[in-house]
Amino acid sequence: MQKIKKAIVAVAGSGTRLLPATKAMPKEMLPIVDKPIIQLVVEELVEGGIEDIILVTKWDKKPLEDHFDHNWALGNDLKNAGKIELWEKIKRISEMANFIYVRQKGPYGNGTPILSAASLVKDEPFIYVWGDDLVKSKVSFTKQMVEDYEKNGHLMIGVQEVPSEEVHRYGIVKLKKGTMQLEDIIEKPSKEEAPSFLADFGRMILDQEIVDILKNIPLGKGNELWVVDAIKEYVKRGGKFYAKKVDDGEWLTTGDPLNYIKAILKYALEREDIGEEIRNILKKQ
Q: Residue 17: which region, alpha, beta or left (left: phi > 0; alpha: psi -120 to 50)?
């Protein structure tokens, strides 16, 4: 079985729900306290053993690329000011992994980034990630998924239980009874129609078979190319695909103002340097 060493990260979205903050700044670069969202995503991937990180971008994502590059001028300023610890911290950012940038091309949809980077993951399993989805857990969720794959060889998608009144906002998985094996994914069902309360999110282990299906399936809802449609076709053809819950942690989406603020608070409250003060501020509100 091949080791999973590559990740495709979809970062070509416009972040319209967070305008005007995202007018001139990629949504993935918005800060969670003092780290941009995308850095937290990359750190999770690296902790899971990923070495090559393929970011599928578009024309306005240069600040994201610059973040993972060396900044010699800043480095020299920090060293000359004696701020060695801070210099080492920013230096590590560019050295965490091999960063590869690919411009997205093709039809609109969350399956398109995979096709844009397909030649870089040919015939090998890989992690596929939304660049604005965080998973906050004691052990990197990527590491949890990779270890599961190395043990069982199953393709998989991350899932998390959501309140029944929120199932209409997500893709909800239907599982074979008594297992985590996927039977279907129902997009935005009503509470009454939902086969479970497990919503899928942006962490997947995929392989060449999924890529090949994506190349050939017709566009789906909204005339878009959906990765979920490829997963469903894979299952229909007899492939085994599994849902995986986060152990000792949680998925945090950052795609809208409320959930973005929730994510900031989750990370801030656990900080030794500011967590207590944040609690005191919240108690006074």
A: alpha
